[in-house]
Amino acid sequence: MSQLEADEDELFHIGVLRKSGRYPWGSGDNPHQRNKQFLDYVADLQSKGMSETDIAKGMDITTTQLRAAKSIAKNEQKKAAISQARMLKEKGLSNVAIGEKMGVNESQVRQLLNPTQAAKNNVLQTTSDMLKKQTDEYGYLDIGVGVEHHVGVSRTQLKNAVALLEAEGYGIQYVNVEQQGTGKITKMVVLTKPDTSYSELYQNKDKIHTIGAYSEDNGRSFRTIQPPVSVDSKRIGVRYAEDGGADADGVIHLRRGVDDISLGSKQYAQVRIAVDGTHYLKGMAMYKDDLPDGVDMVFNTNKSNKGDKLKAMKPMKDDEENPFGSVVRQKTYIDKDGKQKQSVLNIVNEEGNWDDWSRNLSSQVLSKQPVALAKQQLDLKFRAKRAEYDEIMALENPAVKKKLLESFSDDLDSSSVHLKAAALPRQRTQVILPINSLKDTEVYAPNFKNGERVALVRYPHGGIFEIPELTVNNRNAEAGKVMKGAIDAIGINSKVASRLSGADFDGDTVLVIPNNLKQIKSKRPLKSLEGFDPQSAYPAYEGMPKMSAKTKQLKMGDVSNLITDMTIRGASDSEIARAVKHSMVVIDAEKHNLNWKQSAKDQGISELKAKYQGDARSGASTLISQASSEQRVNARRAARTNEGGAINKATGERNYVDTGENYVKPAYTTTNPKTGKVTNHPAQIVYKQDKSTRMAEAKDARELSSGTAMENVYADHANRLKALANESRKSMVNTAPLRYNPQAKVAYAPQVQSLNAKLALAQRNKPLERQAQLLASTMVKAKVDANPHMDKADLKKIKGQALTTARERVGAKKDQVDITNIEWQAIQSGAITNNKLESILANADVDKVKALATPREATVMVSSKVLRAKAMQAAGFDASDIADALGVNVSTLNSALERG
User: Residue 29: its pLDDT value, please?
Assistant: First the structure.
């Protein structure tokens, strides 16, 4: 069961007030009498010394159900009393006379007649009516943990409202839903209409809806993505290839001062713009001051003019949920009348978004560089991990330590597979924009020093011949007008872009690495690749089958691994060029229907595979290309305690046991069409398998190596990470839990109450997240059904897009628990249970928690962090960069380095 749903064992099934038979309150003349009988019955049992638990057992219900039933009965009694008091008041009786008739005092009558009292008492019925209306509308309603925070009522009040509906025949059922991205299971509690079977719910779990009502004043609200606002194509000019559009291919130039296309405070953004309700523009939007009269936008393209500007655009996808095929964030603006309106700009990324992208160095980049550089950057990466482990182990709070060790060990496992190295000094990911007044040897890069040399690396790239080395020119006038001081962009001309594996300007990014020390190696472009056009070189012949998306994915992965293996094993430039040409054909083969099979023959791909991968039909053959390759293993689960535990306490290794899940493949026969021979195939037991990777399953990373120097460096790094992951898990399972102290709970009562309130706010996102997961699952299923041969890369992208879109639509977000110093004192004293602390930590800022849990008397920099600082210093990082990476100030860094 997901921890999100840990409290869902408290069932909602109440309904006891409508029972008859052995319960004496089931046969009263009216609801008021039945409620009174029920309450009197419970009170009588309690007066005889019976506990709520014993009473509930006698009624064959849970204690939670009993309490809910009592709340409902009291609420009904109160409602009846209010109604009676109002009726008597309307007959002209005084408050005193009403009190005498009802058997209550005058002050109670005044309270019953107070409108606010009626409103307060109606919350239960109002909540129940709202749930009923939504369930009737949607059929299936999520009422799981956290819903109460979204609705704005207490958990008890929600359960009581659900109990009223169950008494009317509505059902409460449970269903498991797979989370997008993680594959984990979320258990959902669902309110259904009367007579809804479980099989119906299961078949329609994608239609489970979140409660669409929440506000402090009991109002209702929905957040949804609106249909895109379409712009009239008359407002758009197209700059075709023959007009110079190829020099800025993918850029949408905007006129300044036009409200509905304003970028606001930004200078550039990756956008989608709907056109005429049928097409859309895709690219980077940026301002230009000399647009032709009569248009507000100019789209630059490398396509030729076909006489219809819409042919230069992309047709809108037949998908109401995602008409652009991308996740977007919609903009609004205030028009001249002061009204808020929706912009035509749908933002994918905007200035500042790229600045947070990963600054690691992938193995596909670094493995093409000198072995010494790879070793240096991998050593820096491991030192950073070792220092992080030492910091976690220095923490005082055991629950915090265990949580961080768990996530840290998982991160190490992932790092050993993906093999990313530390970034080089001042390396940054930047989006490229066209500044064609720059020379072929120049780059406008406001985040780098004027006059310094930088290397541009695009992923993926075939070799170092696709890495231009340029001089920073931050005095370019054209760039100064449209991207001055850009946060995360550089300007280059179109010729430089074409060298970057054929990059264009619709949002492509590059790594920009200062290279004054020539650490990144580059070479001139290969002459045999100059002017090579896959579309003209390998057009389809008549009747040729078109490459499928699945085949493209397989063949592209195959040739990419081949290029990596050839590079690591020292292939010549001419051989690399053959493989790169074929990769260019393969990547365009599906879209443009190219003859990729002829390309493979002409470029001698079989011969290259035999030479560098061992056989014409072989695949990845070096550690770099094999590490993340899929490997299937028999379905397994973490071992339970009586099987040794999920973690080996002596070694820290994970313990798995096979589930044994299998199915029987029936016997069948086949007939050879040529000989007519019939072959009988017996029934087979087929075991269910899980997906893993070759590196994850390797005990020693050298099992995947062919023995080259570069692979040895990466193998050593992977083995160090694996060992540290086991060490972390060993420390985790041998850390005792936090001890609960009831006296501390009393002493820190205000802090405990505050922490509970903050946790409740954080958990309010849970039902929205579940709804987002359901919506995303629906979107993904529809796309997979429409394209069952979708490749893995596209499926992963679609899942991410769907989840981001779904979260935006339902308003799912994360409200973190911000722990104050005094609240931390309460936690340290044991004022809350270990389980509650784990829930709080799951919803808190990890960095702040680490700071709170770090001993005050501890040294500022642990020894491993000092060693890391020295290694970074030797690698060329300056003091400010090192201090930023280590999370200390420069003076602290210098003091630590001086102490040695």
Answer: 46
pLDDT over 80 (residue 766): no
Residues 6+ apart with CB under 8 A from 217: none
In the structure encoding, which two tokens stand for residue 585, read together? Answer: 């054909």
Mean pLDDT of 824-831: 91
Measured CA distances, 397 to 265, 401, 404, 604, 830 (Å):
44, 6, 11, 61, 10
Specify the CATH class of 428-518 in words. Answer: mainly beta
Q: Give, in order, the Cα–Cα distances in Å from 142 to each of 11, 134, 173, 203.
A: 14, 10, 10, 16
- Pairwise CA distance, residues 192 & 170, whole Å: 6
DSSP state of 311: G
Closest CA to 131 of 259, 271, 12: 12
pTM greater than 0.70: no
Concatenated DSSP letters of 386-447: HHHHHHHHT-S-HHHHHHHHHHHHHHHHHHHHH--BPPPTT-EEEEEEE-TTS-TTEEB-TT
**Which residues, at least 6 apart from 486, have a Cβ–Cβ distance to it below 8 Å?**
267, 268, 351, 433, 446, 447
Residue 622 corresponds to which tokens in the numbers above?
Answer: 């070096």
Residue 154: both structure tokens together? 């207490």
Residue 263 gets the label, from left (phi > 0), alpha (psi -120 to 50) or beta, of alpha
The residue among 232, 240, 252 whose CA lies nearest residue 307 is 240
Rounded to the nearest angstrom, the gap between the alpha carbon of residue 38 and the centroid of all alpha carbons in its chain is 50
The predicted-structure confidence for 394-431, as pLDDT tens digits, reads as follows 888 898 899 899 989 999 999 999 999 999 999 999 99
Task: Give the three-class secondary structure for 700.
Answer: coil
Report how far residue 233's alpha carbon sits from residue 311's, in angstroms, rounded to the nearest whole number: 12
Per-residue pLDDT band at 185 (split at 50, 70, 90):
low
519: three-class secondary structure by DSSP: coil
Tell whether the model's pLDDT for residue 220 goes beyond 80.
Answer: no
Which pLDDT belongs to residue 305? 93
CA–CA gap between residue 8 and residue 670 (Å, rounded): 52
Beta strands in 263-356 (DSSP E): 268-275, 279-287, 297-300, 314-315, 329-334, 340-350
d(CA 36, CA 536): 88
- The rounded distance, in Å, linking the Cα atoms of 706 and 622 is 6
533 is written with which tokens?
A: 């056009």
**For position 8, what pLDDT does the model report?**
36
Compute the distance between CA of residue 576 and CA of residue 246 in angstroms, rounded to an integer: 28
Give residue 217's pLDDT: 37
CA-to-CA dists, residue 893 to 91, 388, 896, angstroms = 84, 16, 5
What's the farthest any 2 CA atoms get from each other in the chain? 106
At 112-159, the pLDDT tens digits run 777 655 555 566 777 788 888 888 888 888 888 767 655 667 777 778
27 pLDDT band, cuts 50/70/90, is very low
DSSP symbol at 525:
P
**Is residue 477 within a helix (H) or strand (E), and if so which, with residue range?**
helix 477-482
